[in-house]
Each structure stands twice: as structure tokens, then as C-alpha cells.
Amino acid sequence: MLTAAVQMIPEDADHEDPFWAPKFLELANMLIELGANQSIVMRYTGLSDRYAARLMQSFLGKYYDAPRIPTGGPLRYVVPSDRGGYVALVQASIFACCYLNMESAMTVPVHRGWLLANVFRSYRRLTELTVEQGKHLSLVAAYDLVTHLGVGRYRAESPLKLKPCPDCATSYLVLTGIESPPRRRACPMCAVNRNFLRMANSSAEANLAKRKAIPA
Predict the structure, then answer these.
(1) For labeling, which of 18, 53, 147, 205 is most exposed (least CB within 10 Å)?
(2) How far apart are CA 89 and CA 195, in angstroms?
(3) What is the rounded CA–CA span in Å between residue 94 and residue 107?
(4) pLDDT in tens, 119-173
């Protein structure tokens, strides 16, 4: 069950302000529950190293730190890996769409940590019934993706952008301003669909061969 949303925190809110301090503490709890590591909690809430560690321990019942920030740069969200394949690229693209849509819907600039937590919460609710356990984008990976996707006025210089697919009408991540080999430009959703059809056809052919091999 996902955590409840936290009241909107504006971009210029100060974590030391008595009015906003409780909201930043709620944000810290929300980030921890969603899978943030200690460095992300500290970055977005202003909590000290010791306080953040104590909060994570009390919240989770034991000392716990989520996986480290992924390595590989923006290319890991464009080129399929041996571990995640095209499914991981589809998940990254879905999160990026959620992030850009929610950001554009805000009437005032909002705090980046608040935006990340609430977009990730919406992304998990959107995909929880359609994605296998363990195939979702983690919050730590989502944080890394946002650093390559850019925020607000800095997006023009970011290395990643979304590109609409003319075949399936979904959007997927591509490198900005770089001519990539065709394999890196392939829409991951189209690739997943092709793989599914190939497996379905192979299964049908195998079943047909088995039936023909059975004596009449």
C-alpha cells in the first residue's frame, strides 16, 4: 500500500522555517517508504546525516539504505541492458511522461523532492497491476533519471528527451542532439510487442509440430 500524498511544497520553501519543517519531515517519511536512500532524503529535506539515519532506522525497523545511484549515465535509459532489457526502458519512459505531465500541470514552481516523490507515487499506482514484481523503476533510479531529464528551465540542456513513436503512439526516451545507431533509436514498446509476437508464433508453431507428430 502506497503512502499518502504530502501537501504541496513550493520551490522556495525553507526546511528551517517552522511552518514548512513538519512538511519536510512528512516528505522524508514519504521518500523513505517509497525506497529512497539516505543521501536522497538528506538532499531534499535538509535533515542531518545522523537524524536521517535515525529516521530510516525507526521507520523501517532496522538500518537500511536503498541501492546506490545507478551508474552508466543517460545511455542506460536509451539502450537495453542484459538485465532489464526493453521492459526497463518502457518503465523509464512511463515515469518520464508522468514527471513531465505533473510538472507542467503545476501552476507554481514546486520543490523538486516533493515533485519526485509524488510523481513516483503516481507512477507506481499507474503500473502496479500491469508490471511484474521487481520490474518497476526504483525511486533511486527515478532520481537518477530526473537528473538526466532536467527540470524546468534547465531542460533545454538536458541529455535526455521524450520522442513520440509514429507506430505505437507512445513516447520513449532518446539522447538529445546525438545521432544514435538505429538500435538505440528503436521504440522499446514496439520492441516488446515484437518479442511477444515472436514468442507467441514460436509457441504456436511448436504446438502444431507436436500435434502433427502424434499418430492418428
Answers:
(1) 18
(2) 14
(3) 22
(4) 999 999 988 877 776 678 999 999 999 999 987 776 778 899 999 998 888 899 9
